Amino acid sequence: MSIKWGVISTANIAQKAVIPGIKESETGEIYAISSRNLENAKAIAEQLDIPVAYGSYEELLADSNIDAIYIPLPNHLHKEWSIKAMEAGKHVLCEKPAALNARETREMVEASKKAEVVFAEAFMYRYHPRYQMIQELLAKGEIGEIRGLHGVFTFNSASAKENVRFKKAWGGGSLYDVGVYPISAARMILKEEPQAATVHALFSEQHDQVDMMASGILEFDHGVALTFDCGMWADFRNRLEILGTEGKIEVPSAFVVNQNEQDHFFVHTSKGTKEVEVPYVNQYALQADAVGQSILNGKPLPYPASDAILNMKVLDACLTSAEERRRVEIKEEE
Questions:
Q1: How many other β-carbons are positioned within 10 Å of the β-carbon of residue 153?
Q2: Cβ distance 51 to 45 under 8 Å?
Q3: Which residues of 82-117 are buried (b: 16+ CB within 10 A; e: fewer)?
Q4: How many CB atoms lie within 10 A of CB 155?
Q5: From edge to edge, which strands make up the β-sheet containing 247-251?
Q6: Number of H helices and number of E strands within the chain?
Q7: Which of 189, 178, 198 is nearest to 148 (CA)?
Q8: What is the spatial distance between Cα 170 and Cα 151, in angstroms, rounded to a whole number?
Q9: If we measure between CA atoms, which residue out of 229, 279, 231, 232 comes closest to residue 257?
Q10: Which residue ranges does the record assign to the GFO/IDH/MocA-like oxidoreductase domain (predicted)?
């Protein structure tokens, strides 16, 4: 048995990455796609060899053949359509960030529990085996004790003024779009939550006052911190560094990976530099299979729905810090 997926929207991330990933997965198949424009849905369905096209999201959710929904809509629509999908009895994979804030995300998680469906936030990079490899090296003390992390994710699309990423009310901005990657990576690697955030950002009048660049620090326990920057108006970078007392690990292509040597990572110690080769895998396919195994066999998700709430709490603090130019403490979940 395979999971029949329906896709809400014809977003580029769906066409270029997630749909091909689901097709390559062992547990899933793409059954239908929907758009507010039927002709557009039909065109994409034909192009990507998808059996069914719908001219509304509601029609797709009403299709009893569909088991799970992938949602790559603009951020402000994540909560609405995730909950509608759950209420229709569909499992949900929602593009990151899960919602506009932790409160909305909590509502989504509660809705999934009520409907007894799987809900996952789409952070594809976390399913790549190299992070398990890195965790194993850290556990063995390969670089000693962790003293800090530095992550960056920037690109330049500033000329595309109509991009949904540049609409403030829609959840636009670099923190929402790419800052969530180093933030989630630090939480994943340290296996703890930060205590406070301080962020400085460039809010652009040309782009509806969204943050086009942001630099920040997250304070973790034992004096460890993540320093990071993210941007949509800067040269492309996509790196992560883990600094230890006895060495460091560098991941040159930390979040977006390609089939080339840049997918490998490097361990630097007093013994020299070791390049760790990583086999090419489709991390979108691995993500689909993790969700698929949870749906089909009840296997726990590697990152439960509650993780999305915790990640959004950090993002809330980062946004508040940037807007109010102050350090923001992050309270523990009650």
A1: 27
A2: yes
A3: bbbbbebebbbbbbbbbbbbbebbbebbebbeebeb
A4: 18
A5: 272-276, 265-269, 247-251, 233-244, 146-156, 225-231, 211-219, 196-203, 328-329
A6: 11, 15
A7: 189
A8: 25
A9: 279
A10: 131-250
DSSP state at residue 21: H
For residues 5 and 120, is the Cβ–Cβ distance under 8 A? no
Task: Give the pLDDT of residue 271.
Answer: 94
Which amino acid does the sequence have at 281?
Answer: V
3-state DSSP helix/strand/coil percent for the chain, to nearest 5?
40, 30, 30
The answer to whether the beta carbons of residues 214 and 234 sit under 8 Å apart is no
Residue whose tokens read 């469906």: 117
CA 66, distance to chain mean position in Å, is: 23
Half-sphere exposure of 296 (CA within 13 A, CB side): 13
* C-alpha to C-alpha distance for 174 and 91, rounded to whole angstroms: 28
The stretches in the chain having pLDDT less than 50 are 261
> How many residues in the chain?
334
CA 147/CA 232 separation, integer angstroms:
28
Q: For position 162, what pLDDT does the model report?
A: 87
What are the start-end ranges of the H helices in 141-201?
174, 180-190
> Is 3-125 CATH 3.40.50.720?
yes
**48, 49, 234, 50: which is closest to 157 by C-alpha?**
234
Q: Are 45 and 53 in contact (CB under 8 A)?
A: yes
Question: Domain map of the chain by residue range?
Answer: 3-125, 127-284+313-329
CATH architecture of 127-284+313-329: 2-Layer Sandwich (3.30)
Query: What is the residue-wise DSSP string for 29-73?
Result: EEEEEE-SSHHHHHHHHHHHT-SEEESSHHHHHT-TT--EEEE--
Type and span of the H or E element at 196: strand 196-203
Q: β-strand 146-156 against 233-244: which pairing, if any?
A: antiparallel
